[in-house]
Amino acid sequence: MIDHAHDLASVRDATERLLTAVGTLDNASVTHPSRLPGWSRGHVLAHLARNADALVNVLEGRPMYVSGEARDADIERDAPRGLDVQLADLRESATRFQEAGDAPADWARTVELRNGVTDSASRVPFRRWVEVELHHVDLGIGYELEDLPAAFTEREIDFLADRFAGHPDVPPTRLTDGPRAWRTGGEAEGGPEVTVTGSPADLLGWLAGRRTGAALTVDGGPLPALPPL
């Protein structure tokens, strides 16, 4: 069962870690490239702030973004801002999200995200937690996939394995870190199954498009090519 109150508290903790880390930067380093192709650290910070506001829209029954073009334009507009402005925006938008999450609501209701995707309102705090944790890593400022909370890493592997489950372009695949295992891709139906073994951080990095999978061990075939998220 999804515990949205727990996830809201986890978002708050992750955001504080992010704000503390970003607070050690300077104006010049905000302009440096992030680990995301074509994006500076300023782009990542702008996206995080605008995503918080977008998820407030979702929780309050409005479209997540006016349009994909408007979303991209807002990020481009906000990316060049100085560190103090970025920090203030991150903090203020995070507060707006927490306030929306703390408001009395029917957490079992269905909400609409981008591109017609729907989900339970109760999963929105976890989606925000994912944004904060993975984009903190994307900044390239010393926070790595290995530093993520273990409970978060396991849940995100669960989420991404489920996302690719049944995908026609992904072969039947078993993921394991040794003690635990997940299945994703198409149905095996008695045919061969690829087994991908690695640390939780490396499995998550591959599933989330943050690592190539070079550190993983693969049996039963080549490492599957995953479609973009």
From TrEMBL:
Pfam short name (any one): MDMPI_N
MDMPI C-terminal domain mapped to chain residues: 147-228
InterPro entries attached to this UniProt entry: DinB/YfiT-like (IPR034660), Maleyloyr_isom (IPR017517), MDMPI_C-term_domain (IPR010872), MDMPI_metal-binding (IPR024344), SCP2_sterol-bd_dom_sf (IPR036527)
Domain Mycothiol-dependent maleylpyruvate isomerase metal-binding: 11-139
Molecular function as annotated in GO: isomerase activity
Record-linked Gene3D superfamilies: 3.30.1050.20, dinb family like domain
Protein keywords: Isomerase
The protein's name in its UniProt record: Maleylpyruvate isomerase family mycothiol-dependent enzyme
Natural source organism: Streptomyces massasporeus
